[in-house]
């Protein structure tokens, strides 16, 4: 599959520029820098208390990077002031008036054996593999794939891990048997390979942790470095001794560390990791699938590509001026522009990183659910924008309740968010996508690692 980032490569003109072209480029660079600086100044001036709070949090968080170039707790667009907490609350209020109130469950429900779902199950490993199965297919297909695993490999009926799929049997099975079990779900070849690799990695980690915990027991240690109590340690050792493959120890990690750990497994990208955090670990995380991405882009909660690049140019120019000032020199506007690297495409991954910082924790669950439900039902906001069969039906006869807040991208992909706002890159690429059951997993692969 072609990576979205491949489209971001900027190809330079091999022919040398003329003096006239150089003059135009210099003038254009100056205008870009002035516009970017003005934009940055405006955004900074209108920043809210949340941005200050986020900055304080970022100073205490690990600056870990991953293959998606995401730093935990940091926005790729730090000066962009949307969404504000007020904007989030208003959208949540409007959508709840249409789709009903949404609250995260206090207790995670018993897992279904007929549906893969979105990861809202007690077992972390179950949540991870269920969410992986739901990628790039619809609810019916992913449900059949999960039932295929249950029928082929059975459940643990006794001991630690009872009621869960016997993941150790899946681990020990031939890949072709796993392929056959999930074949009805789509992309069975790559998914079966990912599942096998994940289970083997988790098994080896379980054994390693068990050996360490036994050593700690021998030293009469009450807690290990993760803060695990003696009872929790003994349960984890019992699971490992019984060859029960488990990721439940991720409950002991911080949200940032758990997110990074989930990304380390084959085929797992930010969306799946975020879903596991939100639904299974019950941590605030603003999971972004294709429907959430479409709607928050139309709401202006992320910058357009041009806005993002202007911000980067302005930041690079300011940094260069500061460096020159310290050395007693003068900065060149043209040279300053060359310091700004081409921005990566405004994508689901960057949108997740930005909105996870900006959206208040208490609204992340409900807004995720409501945006997907609205993207599914609203004829103006669905991927098939303007579905005539639903335009005048029931609650949609008066239009979309978010109309006054949105600037929609036209179907051709050449539309805009309104005057002065360029397209965020959304197009009819999404028009054939479906979503899984309640929470809307998308048909198309939305993460580079989830193929």
What features would you highlight for this structure?
single chain; 451 residues; mainly alpha; Endonuclease III, domain 1; 16 helices; 0% strand; disordered N terminus; disordered C terminus
Question: How would you describe what is shown here?
Answer:
- It is a single chain.
- With 451 residues, the protein is mainly α.
- The protein has 16 helices and no strands.
- It has 3 domains: 1-46 and 305-345, no CATH class; 48-99 and 288-303 and 346-451, no CATH class; 124-280, Hypothetical protein, domain 2 (Endonuclease III, domain 1).
- The longest helix is centred in the middle third of the chain and has 31 residues, at 188-218.
- The radius of gyration is 24 Å and the shape is globular.
- Mean pLDDT is 75; it is low at 1-17, 28-33, 35-65 and 411-451.
């Amino acid at each position: 599959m072609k990576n979205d980032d491949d489209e971001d490569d900027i190809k330079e003109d091999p022919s040398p520029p003329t003096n006239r072209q150089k003059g135009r480029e210099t003038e254009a660079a100056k205008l870009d820098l002035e516009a970017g600086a003005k934009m940055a100044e405006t955004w900074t001036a209108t920043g809210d208390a949340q941005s200050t709070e986020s900055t304080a949090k970022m100073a205490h968080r690990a600056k870990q990077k991953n293959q998606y170039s995401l730093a935990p707790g940091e926005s790729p667009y730090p000066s962009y002031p949307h969404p504000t907490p007020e904007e989030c609350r208003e959208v949540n209020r409007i959508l709840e008036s249409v789709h009903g109130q949404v609250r995260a469950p206090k207790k995670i429900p018993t897992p279904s054996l007929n549906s893969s779902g979105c990861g809202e199950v007690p077992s972390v490993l179950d949540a991870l593999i269920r969410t992986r199965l739901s990628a790039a297919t619809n609810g019916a297909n992913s449900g059949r794939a999960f039932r295929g695993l249950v029928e082929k490999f059975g459940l643990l009926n006794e001991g630690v891990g009872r009621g869960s799929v016997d993941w150790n049997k899946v681990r020990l099975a031939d890949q072709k048997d796993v392929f056959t079990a999930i074949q009805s779900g789509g992309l069975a070849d790559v998914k079966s390979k990912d599942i096998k690799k994940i289970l083997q990695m988790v098994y080896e980690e379980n054994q390693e942790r068990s050996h360490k915990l036994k050593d700690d027991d021998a030293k009469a240690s009450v807690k290990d470095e993760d803060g695990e109590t003696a009872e929790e340690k003994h349960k984890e050792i019992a699971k490992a001794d019984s060859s029960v493959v488990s990721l439940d120890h991720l409950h002991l990690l911080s949200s940032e560390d758990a997110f990074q750990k989930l990304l380390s497994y084959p085929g797992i990208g930010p969306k799946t990791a975020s879903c596991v955090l939100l639904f299974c670990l019950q941590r605030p995380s603003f999971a972004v699938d294709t429907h959430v991405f479409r709607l928050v882009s139309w709401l202006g909660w992320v910058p357009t590509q041009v806005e993002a690049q202007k911000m980067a140019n302005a930041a690079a120019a300011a940094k260069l001026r500061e460096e020159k000032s310290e050395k007693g020199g003068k900065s060149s506007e043209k040279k300053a522009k060359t310091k700004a690297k081409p921005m990566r495409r405004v994508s689901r991954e960057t949108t997740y990183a930005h909105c996870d910082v900006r959206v208040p924790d208490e609204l992340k669950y409900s807004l995720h659910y409501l945006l997907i439900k609205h993207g599914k039902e609203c004829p103006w906001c669905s991927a098939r924008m303007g579905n005539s069969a639903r335009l005048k039906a029931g609650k949609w006869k008066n239009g979309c309740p978010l109309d006054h807040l949105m600037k929609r991208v036209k179907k051709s992909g050449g539309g805009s968010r309104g005057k002065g706002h360029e397209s965020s890159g959304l197009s009819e690429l999404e028009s054939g996508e479906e979503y899984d059951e309640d929470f809307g997993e998308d048909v198309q692969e939305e993460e580079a690692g989830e193929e």
